[in-house]
Amino acid sequence: MTTLHVQSENGGPAWQVWPTQEVIPSGSIKEASSYLFELRDSDDALDADLLIDDVPVEALRSRQPRVARWRWTPGFHAGSVEVALRLPGTGIRRFEITTDPDLRKLTRNDFDVMVREVLEDTFALFSLSAFRKGIARQSSSKPPPLARLEFLRSRAEEITQTIEAINRSPRHFLRAEQITLPFHRAARATGPEIIKSLRSGLIRTETNRPSRLPAALGGRLPAQITIRQRRNSVDIPEHRQIKACLQSWAAWLSGVADVLAKTSRSNDSDALSTAGSWAVRTRRIARQLNDAADSGFMTEVTDSPPMLQMSSLFRNDPVYHRFYRLWQDMNLGLAALFGDFLQMPLARTYELYELWCFLRLLRAAVQEYGSTGVDLNNLFVTNAAGGVTISAGAVIVSVSPDKVLCFQRQYREYWVEPSGEGSFSRVMVPDVVLAGTGFGSPGKQVIVLDAKYRINDGLNDALNSIHMYRDALVQEAKSGEIEGIVTAAYLLTPHTPALNADFKNTPVPGRLFHPQYRDKFRFGAITLRPGMSSDDLRNSLKTIVADAIGET
Asked: Is 471 in the same domain as 545?
């Protein structure tokens, strides 16, 4: 039998992925590695093609005529990829493989957390801006960015799992209803029900003697008797709302799939590949949601507006509460929010992490220093269609009258900068800069923060960047001497360190996080991890400022 297997190029176990797919252990297929696909026992091995996300995979020469081999290098890619196997005479066979992040990074669940929090922060910050446009839902006539599609796909998978969990034990109630039956089938009719049925309809007279009816009826009985009975029903408001949401999401995704299919017919080869793949995936997601809305107990549920209302069931039942949380996530993913960062796939996690750090710190700064003086006009751009685009590059946001938070601000050579502050070598673009006065110390503070989506030993290679920013960003003093402007420089990373009592006895990278080390050198690393609470983020911001001004 013809089979397709995948394994690491360095050797190790091989897993069958077609025609039946084996369970690949988590972490076995990861980014920045190299893997081999091997088609075995095929008469058409020489003519077979393998594509990943519609891009041909590098074919290798095989010493066996019935075996075809390909090399796949995911690069810095984590997430689901679609594999297409083309065999002559059998058409295209498609399946998906999930790649995990490099072990120096976090799990793929953190990607979803970061996207959710980027969208949540955007909504919160947008509410503070001068713009007054609704961005709650994007029209399906425009294809959404890739990151939002990735996010919606991950949420849709969890939604179907949650519906299956509800299906196993749905909440129900005893429902009373009235039904009309012929008299010979209404054996359990009560006296009041019979008397009430005598008021309308055909009345039959008993001919048998002696009569078998109670004497009070006088030998008469209604031909049709309306009785009241109770039965279990799942047609509760929560189920109606869940079903309506599933159908609404499926309809929206179907419209997006049609738009993506039209985009894939353009002349741009890159757009053709990406849009065509996502058209297939989006249509598949819509079909999954429609199937969930028409399966199990959902077939007995009537229509309702697609809007959940918090109730005791959504609040107290863990499974129903999970669906409510997913509904909130879907609302974020459906929002009319755009931006360059969303146009890239979630696989480019380091870029997403940079923006995530900026928005998290910006929101924490607004909470810490107040909303007075906050100017977000440089961060958001709206269009006539009601969408919002985040300017995710060279952004300077005033967080108070005397403080600014910058994202990817460009520092040119200091002699060409109007402010006189810049680089003495080349253009430099630190990820995040917090600058200004009023931090509780005399003089201006310039705190450079470089976001690195790495953990463990991967942080050792990231030290060069903050060394560079701290030493190369300067200004010319009145005396003509060159002096540095950076008062503190830190890495931002999801790494959680283990610290010893003395920083000198703590190995790198843990040493960078040690409070004594940061206080002494105004240099080091701060933990910013997806899923942190707003209080933890504010404490991290206060720690950064306290280290920079020497108040630790």
From this structure: yes
Q: How many Å apart are CA 92 and CA 396, to the nearest integer?
A: 49
118/108 Cα distance (integer angstroms): 16
State residue 128's pLDDT score.
47
Catalogue the E-assigned strands of 452-534.
473-476, 482-484, 488-493, 523-527
Q: Which domain holds residue 287?
A: 137-169+236-334
Task: Indicate if 388 and 515 belong to the same structural domain.
Answer: yes
**Does 205 reside within a domain?**
no
C-alpha distances out from residue 204 to 59, 207, 428, Å: 86, 9, 98
Go through the chain and tell me how many residues it has: 552
Q: What is the pLDDT of residue 321?
A: 93
Query: If phi over 0 gives left and psi between -120 and 50 gives alpha, with beta otherwise, what is residue 182?
Result: beta
Which amino acid is located at 271 in the chain?
Answer: A
406 and 511, same domain (yes or no): yes
CB proximity list for 523: less than 8 A, separation 6 or greater: 466, 470, 488, 489, 490, 512, 517
Per-range mean pLDDT, top range of 71-80, 267-276, 298-307? 298-307
The CA radius of gyration of the chain, in Å to the nearest whole number, is: 32
* Distance of alpha carbon 235 from alpha carbon 244, whole angstroms: 12
Q: What is the pLDDT of residues 20-67, one digit of tens each?
A: 989 888 768 876 678 999 999 999 899 999 988 777 899 999 889 999
Q: What is the DSSP letter of 32?
A: T
Same domain, 354 and 304: no
In this structure, the answer to whether residues 485 and 512 fall within a common structural domain is yes
Whether the Cβ atoms of residue 512 and residue 491 lie closer than 8 Å to each other: yes
Spatial separation of the C-alpha atoms in residues 201 and 193, rounded to whole Å? 14
pLDDT at position 5 over 90: yes
More confident residue, 145 or 92: 92
Total domain count, the chain: 3
Q: Are residues 494 and 455 in the same domain?
A: yes
On whether residue 179 sits in a domain, the answer given is: no
pLDDT number for residue 338: 43
**How far apart are the C-alpha atoms of 87 and 100, rounded to whole Å?**
28
Between CA 237 and CA 392 the distance in angstroms is: 42
Q: Is the Cβ–Cβ distance between 543 and 550 less than 8 Å? A: no
- Residue 423 corresponds to which tokens in the numbers above? 């680089």
Q: Is 174 within the bounds of a domain?
A: no
Q: Cα(239)–Cα(241) distance, rounded to whole angstroms?
A: 5
C-alpha of 109 from chain center: 8
Quote the pTM value: 0.58
User: Exposed, middle or buried, 335 (CB in 10 Å: 0-12/13-18/19+)?
Assistant: buried
Whether 419 and 500 share a structural domain: yes
Integer angstrom CA distances of residue 184 from 207, 364, 435, 535: 15, 74, 88, 71
Q: How far apart are CA 86 and CA 2, in angstroms?
A: 13
- Domain assignment present for residue 204? The answer is no
| The residue type at 37 | F
